[in-house]
Amino acid sequence: MCQQQHWYGYGERIEKIKRGPSIERGIDGHLLLQIFFSAYMDLQKIKHDDPYKGAIGAVSDFVNPLLNDAFTNNDGDETKRIVALHALVLGFLDYIKSDILKWQIIGVEKEFRIKLTDDIIYAFTIDLLVWDGFFKPIDWKFTYDFFSPEVLLLLPQVRKYIGALKHLDFPVDFGYYGILRYRSLKKNTPDDLYRLQKVEPTKSSINTYFGDTVKIAKQIAKLKAMSPEGWKDEIVRNSSITTCKMCDFRFLCGPELHGSDGVNIRNVHYKQSTYGYR
Ligand code: SF4
Predict the structure, then answer these.
(1) Mean per-residue pLDDT, 240-246
(2) Which of 66, 132, 140, 219 has an alpha carbon 20 to 30 Å from 89's alpha carbon atom?
(3) pLDDT computed for residue 33 by the predictor
């Protein structure tokens, strides 16, 4: 991550008020999956006779009032967006239904904490942790295209989760990316849109990614202990076409680079973020 981007997101703790459609889709899609699996877990606990059906109902109960509002406000784009996302998520849940029925849900958006030193706690949140004879961490990805084998070899999240869970003595050797593809194709089959992609990482990749995570947590603790001015003095902008064109802070970063104090841009386009290091 670019150090300037890191400062905006985690030092200043700001985020864009209106996010791009792919970020909105990812956040809202995660929320629908969170609602489904939280309801599924609760219904499993009370031994409901059909937790899958009940949890699908919980998702609809959440979506329907939003849809009603969008429809009442004559907001055609928002109506279309909600309908498409709801259909995408329901299609995915149907695609992996046979897996879901075998899972015991251990945690949904569950936070784990590892004490790295007396002063440094590494906290991480897993989208879904299930057990079906094995513990399996699962990370959701809303993406335009499936990942190539080269990219899959490099994706860090599930490898990091496995390393961190091992550190907490969970017997876990593999996990999954639950991939939902939102690209509109002429003829979509479920196989074109969805994948439960198994990740069985090597010991070396787990050690590398978990080791990186520990190093980053220590660097962040060091930065947090500094004054804001001290932190800003350490920053090197990693500007490149690839990172900047996707960066939510580009509308602020460019003007500041050229001497603006960025106050008006901050007031109009950014707000205090709901995430960050605690
Ligand atoms: S616009 Fe580029 S240089 Fe600026 S914060 Fe984003 S990634 Fe970094």
Answers:
(1) 88
(2) 132
(3) 96
Nearest to 122 by CA among 234, 210, 10, 225: 210
- Which residue's C-alpha comes closest to atom 7 of ligand 1? 244
Counting ligand 1 atoms within 8 A of each CB, the residue from 241, 243, 256, 266 with the most, and so the one to mutate, is: 243
Residues 127, 185: one domain? yes
Q: Is the pLDDT of residue 68 over 80?
A: yes
Looking at the structure, tell me whether residues 115 and 197 fall in a common domain.
yes
Query: Which of 37, 20, 24, 147 minimizes the C-alpha distance to 85?
Result: 24
Please compute, for residue 233, the number of CA atoms within 13 A of its CA located in the half-sphere on the CB side. Answer: 5
Mutation choice for ligand 1 from 1, 4, 241, CB with most ligand atoms inside 8 A: 4
Q: Are residues 199 and 151 in the same domain?
A: yes
pTM listed for this prediction:
0.83
pLDDT grade for 30, boundaries at 50, 70 and 90 = very high
Note down the domain range covering 203.
109-225
Give the total number of structural domains in the chain.
Answer: 2
Boundary residue ending a domain (73, 102, 131): 102
250 Cα: distance to centroid of ligand 1 (angstroms): 6
